[in-house]
Amino acid sequence: MAMHRKHMVRDFNRYITCSICCGYLIKPTTVTECLHTFCKSCIVQHFEESNECPECGIQVHETNPLEMLRLDKTLEEIIFKLVPGLRESERCIHKRTQEEHQEREFWRKNKIKTSAEGNE
């Protein structure tokens, strides 16, 4: 008779966490050259400074490493199923970030209009 072992989320952490930020993979993005996966924002930011994979060090693309990235929606869904509340948490963070961006844009535009009006 086969024994069924219950797994904890921590049993899968090495597969569902980003080696750059050490958090759960958010918008998991795979480097097609070596198949290492990172958060989208982490790997994009990394490629602003380097064109090497942060995990294995191979050169990803000589001039545009971003061409070698692929979003992994299947892994994203698996992570959301394994980590209850992560999807909702990400939605809240994304919404808050969007609102902050819109507010900065409003004040940037308003400041330009105010400065232009002061010159008249």
UniProtKB/TrEMBL annotation:
Protein keywords: Metal-binding, Nucleus, Repressor, Transcription, Transcription regulation, Zinc, Zinc-finger
Pfam families: zf-C3HC4_2
Domain RING-type as annotated: residue spans: 18-56
Keyword Repressor tagged: yes
PROSITE patterns noted in UniProt: ZF_RING_1, ZF_RING_2
Highest taxon of source: Eukaryota
Alphabetical list of InterPro entries matching this protein: PcG_RING_finger, Znf_RING, Znf_RING/FYVE/PHD, Znf_RING_CS
Record SMART domains: RING
GO cellular component: nucleus
Keyword Zinc: yes
Subcellular location: Nucleus
Molecular function as annotated in GO: zinc ion binding
Description of how the protein assembles with itself and partners: Component of a PRC1-like complex.
Job of this protein: Component of Polycomb group (PcG) multiprotein complexes; the complex class is required to maintain the transcriptionally repressive state of some genes.
Name of protein: RING-type domain-containing protein
Originating species: Danionella cerebrum
